[in-house]
Amino acid sequence: MSPRDVYARRDLRLAVLSGLYVAVVLSAQIGANKIIRLPFTHLQAPGGVYSIGVALALVQLAHHTGATRRDGALNAQLLIGLGFVGSAGASPPIDSAIFLILAFGSSGLHFFDGQLVGKIASSVVIGIPLVVLGRRFLPAKTGDIVPA
């Protein structure tokens, strides 16, 4: 097998893992809207709890798709970033619809457009600057950062 074929297989494997990871993260968010009873323990948990375990396993698999340890870490970061982007795109409409139905019943859905725009705008105008400021002015723990 030529080196080009090896890289093509590795890229295909990462692409499949990425798509699966985003699907699992989105299913976890949807599943989180229902409380389930866990078998054997009879404890209650959000329905997406099993999906999160699968998502973490997929991130670990992504670590093994790279030719080097650094490449594997970058692949895992790529998966997490894609999951965040997919989640950010799917979460606001789902959350908005559920909130409006719970708060106002089915008649509350006529507020959907305003609710969605307000949620996204507040995330961008307030949320992102808060995260940036927090990262800039709050010190990181020295033992938390591991070099690649």
Describe the structure in your own words.
The chain is mainly alpha-helical. The protein has one domain. The protein has helices spanning 3-31, 49-63, 69-104, 112-137, and strands at 35-37, 44-46. A two-stranded antiparallel sheet has the order 1-2. Strand 1 (35-37) and strand 2 (44-46) form a beta hairpin. Helix 1 (3-31) runs antiparallel to helix 2 and helix 3 (69-104) packs across helix 4.
The amount of helix comes to over 70%
Major sheet: 2 strands, antiparallel
Question: How far is it from the N-terminal to the C-terminal residue, by CA?
Answer: 29 Å
Strand residue content: under 5%
The SS-based structural class is mainly alpha
Uncertain residue segments: none
Number of domains: 1
Radius of gyration: 20 Å
Question: How large is the count of helical segments?
Answer: 4
Q: Main sheet: which strands, in order across?
A: 1-2
Mean model confidence by pLDDT: 81
Oligomer: single chain
Short summary:
The chain is mainly alpha-helical and 148 residues long. 72% of the residues lie in helices and 4% in strands. 13% of the residues are buried.
What keywords describe this structure?
single chain; 148 residues; mainly alpha; two-stranded antiparallel sheet; 4 helices; 72% helix; 4% strand; globular
